[in-house]
Amino acid sequence: MEDAAIAQLISTSQLEGMRRVAGMPDLHPGRGYPVGAAFFSTGCFYPALVGNDIGCGMGLWQTSLPAKSLNIDKLEKRAGNIDGPMQDEAFRLQAMQAADLPAGDFDASLGTLGGGNHFAEFQQVDAVYAADALSALGLDKQLLLLLVHSGSRGLGERILRQHVDVFGHRGLQGGSVEALRYMTQHDAALRFARCNRHLVAQRLLSNVRAQGQALLDVHHNFVAEASIHGQMGWLHRKGATPSDQGPVLIPGSRGDYSYLVRPTLACQDTLLSLAHGAGRKWTRSACKDRLFKLVTPTQMARTALGSRVICQDRQLIYEEAPQAYKGIDSVVQALEGAGLIELLARTKPVLTYKTRGECCE
Known about the structure:
With 361 residues, this protein is an alpha+beta fold. The chain has one domain: tRNA-splicing ligase RtcB, CATH 3.90.1860. Strands 4, 5, 6, 8, 12, 13, 15 and 16 form an eight-stranded mixed β-sheet that branches.
């Protein structure tokens, strides 16, 4: 773990009302606060710790696409372009109604991934460790999976900006008018983010002419009231997956495996949290400098595992290179070694969608 990430974690532990902080194995430096961590405070909570992508998380779907007869060329072509607004406005409005989302300024972004480390990825099961658990979850290893990682898009950014403009990075006293107002907006952003992941999945499934069944959907950026060691307070998660909401998928980079795991221990010392992914080891600004002379964007659209990457953004394809992330095995082994998880299955990427965007050639 980088010294900067540890320093940020220690600095956060010294905030007013902060009782415990926990860094996950994927801990890495963020913008003022570490990513891959959970924080427990009493008396007040800190919207800045949640950050601008409120509700960012992972959704996993079982598709109807047989892995055995996969034609990756056809899949890549049929995936199409989901960067722009949805054309089926009636379907979007129906999804918004089901999620209790009123009309707002960011409705057009529903069903889109956004930038950064967000992605949608078709995967196939590579190894099974607990067949009974997979059956109970409704997962068929013979069929492709679809993983969607995205959040609340511009809505979360506006909520954080409104808070910071008035309060800076100060906390909000629990029960205050300001706290209640923020939590109302925060909870709406959670619903928006979950709705967004479902619409992204439906767009892609429709494009590739497949059906899909949602297996799980878990936020990893949010704050909620919680009891830790018998004390009521506020549990913040910034890139930390809950360990008290059933099985979760912990993804690697676009060129690495992912692991479906089942939490085995409700550990309050680790703030009921797990790693949410591999975690960065290179800053975004360093990626292109390190890789530009070694590999072309076209070469980076193929991975060592034989998968394809759709990313027609020249800068982004370098920023999100597999080399920029820690190995997922080291992260998962740390969690398993601590007795926090049981491995259910390993998956490998088939096709990762980032953006069609402008041609990067």
